Inverse folding.
């Protein structure tokens, strides 16, 4: 079946540190890949997406590259801020099937 | 533009009691989703509507859960009777077209069953 595996959190960083949150997937077919973010007290919102191999999604300084050879879609940011503290969810959708989420990774950024 | 609106935000009930959640999607969004998010887990789809039609309810526990989307706009998710294991956050989302993966979520309704 289709699934997403994320690194466990929490990830704790100091402000301006480099961030990587790992995400790998298993899919039958060619998925589209997504990162969603959930800030404290808010609903999930789409952060970025990539729909085919080697595509790079980017938004708000975050980036993720669709790597078909390693079935990965790792989230990166060069310099995190306190305001980036949130829970990040990797997700995929294949063909017309449902959106499948990973378990989420909590990021805590301290000043 | 208003986002997806859900109510109530929080609900505490005793087991065996009924509970209902309401969702108003973004105007013009034909597809509406109900997800359940258990503590420390990612959201899992319960049901998807295309306009008034439930097109994917394979994960909805039909013995106690029911949902409706009258007139293809607002939706209600009901649990009767609630069990301890139903404690979770119930998320409503909408999208303009189905299964693009680009969903707009509400803030969720947190249910605690005692």
């Amino acid at each position: 079946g289709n699934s997403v595996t994320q690194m466990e959190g929490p990830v704790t960083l100091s402000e301006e540190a480099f961030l990587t949150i790992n995400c790998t997937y298993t899919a039958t077919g060619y998925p589209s890949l997504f990162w969603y973010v959930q800030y404290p007290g808010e609903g999930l919102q789409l952060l970025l997406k990539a729909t085919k191999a080697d595509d790079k999604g980017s938004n708000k300084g975050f980036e993720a590259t669709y790597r078909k050879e390693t079935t990965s879609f790792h989230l990166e940011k060069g310099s995190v801020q306190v305001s980036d503290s949130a829970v990040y969810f990797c997700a995929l959708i294949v063909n017309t099937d449902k959106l499948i989420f990973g378990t989420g990774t909590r990021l805590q950024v301290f000043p | 533009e208003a986002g997806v609106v859900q109510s109530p935000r929080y609900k505490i009930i005793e087991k065996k009691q009924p509970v209902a959640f309401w969702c108003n999607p973004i105007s013009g969004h034909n597809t509406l989703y109900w997800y359940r998010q258990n503590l420390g887990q990612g959201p899992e789809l319960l049901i998807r509507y295309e306009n008034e039609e439930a097109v994917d309810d394979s994960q909805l526990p039909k013995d106690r859960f029911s949902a409706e989307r009258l007139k293809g706009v607002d939706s209600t998710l009901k649990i009767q009777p609630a069990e301890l294991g139903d404690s979770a956050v119930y998320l409503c989302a909408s999208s303009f077209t189905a299964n693009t993966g680009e969903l707009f979520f509400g803030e969720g309704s947190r249910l605690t069953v005692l």
